[in-house]
Amino acid sequence: MRVLITGAAGMVGRKLIARLAKDGQLRGRKISALELHDIVAPEAPAMPGVDVSLHTGDLAAPGATASLLAARPDVIFHLAGIVSGEAEANFDLGYRVNLDGTRALFDAVRLAGFAPRLVFTSSIAVFGAPFPDVIPDDFHPTPLTSYGTQKQMSEALLADYTRRGFFDGIGIRLPTICVRPGKPNKAASGFFSGIIREPLAGQEAILPVPRSVLHTHASPRSAVNFLIHAAEIDGAVVGPRRNLTMPGVAVTVGEQIEALERVAGSNVAKLIREQPDDTIWAIVKGWPTRFEAKRSRELGFAAETSFDEIIRAHIEDELDNKLAG
Amino acid sequence: MRVLITGAAGMVGRKLIARLAKDGQLRGRKISALELHDIVAPEAPAMPGVDVSLHTGDLAAPGATASLLAARPDVIFHLAGIVSGEAEANFDLGYRVNLDGTRALFDAVRLAGFAPRLVFTSSIAVFGAPFPDVIPDDFHPTPLTSYGTQKQMSEALLADYTRRGFFDGIGIRLPTICVRPGKPNKAASGFFSGIIREPLAGQEAILPVPRSVLHTHASPRSAVNFLIHAAEIDGAVVGPRRNLTMPGVAVTVGEQIEALERVAGSNVAKLIREQPDDTIWAIVKGWPTRFEAKRSRELGFAAETSFDEIIRAHIEDELDNKLAG
Ligand SMILES: NC(=O)c1ccc[n+]([C@@H]2O[C@H](COP(=O)([O-])OP(=O)(O)OC[C@H]3O[C@@H](n4cnc5c(N)ncnc54)[C@H](O)[C@@H]3O)[C@@H](O)[C@H]2O)c1
Ligand SMILES: NC(=O)c1ccc[n+]([C@@H]2O[C@H](COP(=O)([O-])OP(=O)(O)OC[C@H]3O[C@@H](n4cnc5c(N)ncnc54)[C@H](O)[C@@H]3O)[C@@H](O)[C@H]2O)c1
Fold this sequence. Notes:
homodimer, alpha/beta, Rossmann fold, seven-stranded parallel β-sheet, three-stranded mixed β-sheet, globular, binds nicotinamide-adenine-dinucleotide, NADP (chains A, B), SDR family oxidoreductase (chains A, B), DenD (chains A, B), NAD(P)-bd_dom_sf (chains A, B), carbohydrate metabolism (chains A, B)
């Protein structure tokens, strides 16, 4: 089993690599080679007996993708991308990486002709307001950001390239991955994690939107579970509609804060400071709220069932199971 | 009023030009300039006092689009494209013209910075089976052809570029335009017109699919009405969802043939010969059937209400109001 990961230095990429290193196998076959690509140098995991290669470069640069395929990976995880806030602020960069980079990778796979399984991380940002109360699987994508547009266009390519047999693609629309570990990034969704992560580390956090904002979340653990399941699922069972809305926990920001109080106490939750930000609010208010995610659940994709669970996953995975203070 | 038309030598383009020549105005303003572009030399209409320029070239060639914008058209009709059958047979050509050509035009408009109204002819081929009985406006596009994928991706760009203020776009998803005049083209939908047009001209026509096939049609006249309305409609009323499914007449092939018998007699309808074609059937069976088209009707887009009317429009516009024989 040979695996290629783009965006390997990113948050989800690093979690996925750690999981593959632990499992040592994918689709019931021992992992023999791991190719890791990112524009930032990716870190090599300790995987004795596995041929790990590190590639550093711009996926959207001419010719960058073909060389990644020389070893004919059985499974490709395409995670590289520019996050929503940055893709909105920098029009050219977003289209170049998220659309042209993705298309370059897809075309390199097409021209290489060996039709691997290709898992692509799309986003619920393909949807845009106004929404019904529960967004059904067959609701139309009308993104309200360039990031969402780029993901939507990539999904369309993935479906067509799969239909034509160029590869065997599965697009997974991730909900917001929360609690995101590490430093804040430029995603407009950053505060959803910040208001949990910073207080748990004894630090103040800014809440830029109203507490009534309803949003869907899944933990980094669940994101990795989705990816592994997407790599292993039988394509024939999925059928021609290859872009799947992942399950998650739909809660308001107020409910997130209540969960934090339950799990870590009200002194921790008091570290959240409300400071409205119109730019973030303008983006977030067009975002989807609650999904049915019927197809993905039926296909065996599973996430947490409460936000308390999401907070506990963070405490276990990132804080050595210890609360500060 | 300065108008630019791409695909000006095509069927819809020529009908639109004839209509603009007759009206002499658009959006309540006298047409002063008409720029016509196509890869096939477009014909200049007789429009005294109007500055008509003809451009022949490949829209997808580097730099081709910028020169078309030198005169800063107030309204752009983007009709150029490769039809469904050809885009399916020729992967590279379809993506190059329908996606890259469209993106090149959109980017040239973006960089020129004068934000004109831009009307784009999308297609109901953005939808793919399985379908509910009536396809609602908020049904997800899951095209089953590369042509449909290219139209879907262009729609996504149009919405994002409009949201960003680069232009003021309206995407109109045309149903099958029927009766298509002239010679058969390479569209997989060609037979829908052929079974009416050829018998009316005293010639045999091939029916490659079962009579039970249900499909939505509008006349070339209606297509032009849609385009004019899309050029004139108030963008604020349309709102952010800029891609609209046009109304049409939903009939089975059997009902088309019954209408032909009613309008032209059973001797004419007898000229249709059934000869199943698996390739065409494979494409057509994934096509959409009946649309709600609620938004477009509410926004004032109107089509015929019976297939008899569609046949009569053809007899009036193409056969000098005379039946053969
Ligand atoms: N984290 C979330 O909440 C979330 C939600 C929905 C979708 N996603 C998608 O999941 C994927 C992974 O998300 P993440 O949270 O790990 O993001 P991340 O920003 O942590 O990782 C993305 C990686 O892509 C790399 N990258 C950027 N430009 C590149 C280029 N030109 N060439 C090569 N690599 C480049 C970055 O260096 C980064 O390491 C992304 O595609 C993201 O859009 C994430
Ligand atoms: N006719 C229909 O039933 C129907 C249905 C849905 C959508 N549409 C869309 O409406 C538009 C017009 O349709 P039509 O029936 O007039 O099609 P058509 O084929 O008659 O016209 C398309 C024109 O585009 C031109 N063209 C092709 N490649 C080009 C290139 N590289 N550069 C410049 N021009 C190029 C062709 O020469 C042709 O004149 C197309 O975009 C089509 O996809 C048509």
